[in-house]
Amino acid sequence: MSNFTKQTIEEFLKNLESSSPTPGGGTSAAIGAAISCGLIAMVANLTIGKKGYEKHEKEIKEILSAVLVLKKECESLADADSNAFMEVMKAYKIPKENKEREKIIQKSFKKAVEIPLLVAKISDTLSLFAKRIGKIGNKNAYSDAKSADYFAVAAKKSAVENVKINLPFIKDGKWKSKLYLK
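RESULT FIELD:
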């Protein structure tokens, strides 16, 4: 089981550049979304209690509360993404004679799609929060709010690429047709 979010940045980047398939783009997308959360939280914390921002303080506190929950979820999804990919690789190692092999492979690919799809959806929410806090938050932290939006957009694009690369391996057309991929 992966635990990339407990590593130092240096350790994570070393793992990222290695020949190991994990962490990869999906894990990095979730980490990027978590960074977006951190930046939004920072802008919120630099705004709450400051003179001139009282009018929006309740909304900013709500945004802060929401992004702290989403940050934990993104951290969890970072590890889950790598674990899902490892499950796909493990499924392919099942002997072809095993009657459950194809079912296990399909289940593992569905998970490898669901996780980055969730990261993409979260990233959409983060982009909205970043834009909003950029408008109502501490003006001295505007560039941080914009950076949060850029990380959210990049996280979504990366997550969607991870969905797209795994989707063709899923044979269940009905399941695929229910996916919201925008």
